[in-house]
Design goal:
The structure is a single chain. By secondary structure, the protein is α/β, with parallel strands linked by helices. Helix content is 37%, strand content 16%. The protein is built from 7 helices and 9 strands, in the order βαβαβαααββαβαβββ. The chain has helices at residues 15-26, 47-59, 70-84, 87-113, 123-130, 159-164, 189-197; strands spanning 5-8, 33-36, 63-66, 135-138, 141-144, 179-182, 203-205, 220-225, 230-235. It has a 5-stranded mixed β-sheet, with helices on one face. Strand 5, helix 6 (159-164) and strand 6 form a beta-alpha-beta unit. Helix 1 runs parallel beside helix 2. The longest helix is centred in the middle third of the chain and has 27 residues, at 87-113. The mean pLDDT is 92.
Length: 241
Amino acid sequence: MPASRWIIPDLHGYAKTLQSLVETLIKPGRQDELYFIGDYIDRGPDSKGVIDYIRKLQQDGYKIVAMKGNHEAVMTELWESESKAPIAWWHMLGNRKEKLWREMGGDATLKSFGVNRISDVPNEYIGWMNNLSWYAIIDGFVVVHAGLNFSHNDPFSDKQAMLWQRDYKIIPEKIGHRRLIHGHVPVSLELITLSVKNPALMFIDLDNGPYFTDRPGFGNLVALELNSMELVIQNNLDIAT
């Protein structure tokens, strides 16, 4: 039996839900592959716990490919700026950037680390985020956090697009006629299921917005297995936290 290959999108600090998804529904073996496609942090109650859990899987010998999302990019940039900048400069300019990050859910991330300043987040976590992959090519699929810039001759040359791109028209020949799997933009379970089951569609968006727990059709973590195109859904177990 071939190794399973699971794609797991935006986690946003929901560590209990992630653990249940992996250990109750996916149940990976050491030969299987888990592809996480970014946005591990912000909004949910335990961003640190999400990173700790994925790092533990890596340390335990599971085959993990972890990609970068826009939330990790913003946090690491802010950490570098605050750690190196003079205090006066930070209060003048840095606070504006940090305010934006906090509006993206950064306060919850700081709380999960038990700190008030982003520069107090331990270096090892920033190093882990800085070393995340940008994308993966898996047989007939390109997997990335947000999307690709198809206006470029080489869509893989624009790393900002991989983190932030929302609106784009896929040009199949530029990615070897592969299907694009991404997260970043929350969509309903109905649309996720439709895109998975319809091979004529060139994209699959797997982000169900786990923080939209009061919106029908949203608020779950999902995972897609590429060999069988099986979609599994874990309801959010962290909402009472």
